[in-house]
Specification:
By secondary structure, the chain is mainly alpha-helical. It folds into 2 domains: about 35 residues, no CATH class; about 70 residues, no CATH class. It contains 4 helices and 3 strands; from the N terminus they run βββαααα. α2 packs antiparallel against α3. The longest helix has 21 residues.
Length: about 100
């Protein structure tokens, strides 16, 4: 791997020798797929780790300020929800709260 004049990391196609961007999965010249299975598996595992509950918990626990990290993760989750989703979660929390209060 090397950088071109603009600082973009480049790879050489293993089929035709065409110089391509590091991020390209398919060679623009010959159309050959240049990703190895290991690269694809590692990329998929990183995405799973990033968006999974386990990954979120690891980020919170490894953060310097876990309280701020927790609120940041909550905001990330909330930003991905629609208003209907937020309302549904609110109803669930309110229902569980009412059940707990009625038992006590």
């Amino acid at each position: 791997m090397k950088n071109n004049l603009w600082g973009v990391r480049m790879k050489v196609c293993q089929f035709c020798g065409f110089e391509r961007k590091d991020s390209d999965k398919k060679c623009p010249s010959c159309g050959g797929l240049n990703s190895t299975i290991a690269e694809l598996i590692a990329e998929e595992e990183a995405n799973i780790e990033k968006y999974s509950f386990k990954g979120r918990c690891k980020r919170i626990l490894n953060a310097e300020n876990s309280k701020d990290a927790f609120f940041h993760e909550v905001e990330l989750i909330k930003s991905g929800l629609t208003n209907k989703g937020v309302f549904t979660i609110f109803l669930i929390v309110a229902f569980v709260f009412a059940l707990v209060i009625s038992v006590l």
